[in-house]
Amino acid sequence: xxxxxxxxxxxxxxxxxxxxxxxxxxxxxxxxxxxxxxxxxxxxxxxxxxxxxxxxxxxxxxxxxxxxxxxxxxxxxxxxxxxxxxxxxxxxxxxxxxxxxxxxxxxxxxxxxxxxxxxxxxxxxxxxxxxxxxxxxxxxxxxxxxxxxxxxxxxxxxxxxxxxxxxxxxxxxxxxxxxxxxxxxxxxxxxxxxxxxxxxxxxxxxxxxxxxxxxxxxxxxxxxxxxxxxxxxxxxxxxxxxxxxxxxxxxxxxxxxxxxxxxxxxxxxxxxx
Length: 273
Prior knowledge:
The structure is a single chain. With 273 residues, this protein is mainly alpha-helical. The protein is built from eleven helices and no strands. Helix content is 78%, strand content 0%.
């Protein structure tokens, strides 16, 4: 007579999950509730951020200030009466979503947590915490390192001098905001690479040996992504490609730790069987 391999804790959790099963309409109602909370927080933060949108935009001018040698050298223009107003709306929305991310992530976790085993919830939580940390690190690399160098490269193309036509870079406020928002999102999302690959390793879709074999293809893919997401200058492209290559190597180490932990758990289960 065969014995079940489930532990008493697993059996208890199976019963709890069975009791928590609900019709589709209840899941949709729960999802709606979570979305309402998230959107309400974003709306409140959006109103608050709009009143300080000028200060937020001045903060986003930091890379331009460092590239040009001081705030007195920073000049931006807008060419339509409503342009700066809509730019401030975009700034407020971007800042509201950024500040609301902990609430959004918490609501997502609260929605999926009832359908997870306790050990799965423990495994999922570190990734939930690592996501904003890696996003902020990626955004900081762009803000303090890559973008000032890229803007300095573009400013070096200006032509000024006696007897010459003056060719000066005067970016529009909307164009500058679009550039920095695109780069913030690009760097923040690309820095999630270790989280994505480690999660794939946990569900046994990839392994460390596979990632090693894919290394040369990954380098090509990283260069393509960097060329697509950043402005057409070598500084910003290398500024994204080099950290991504490093993160890929870190991902291999992280996947190896996942595999080692899985083998250890399987060995313990075999010993107890």
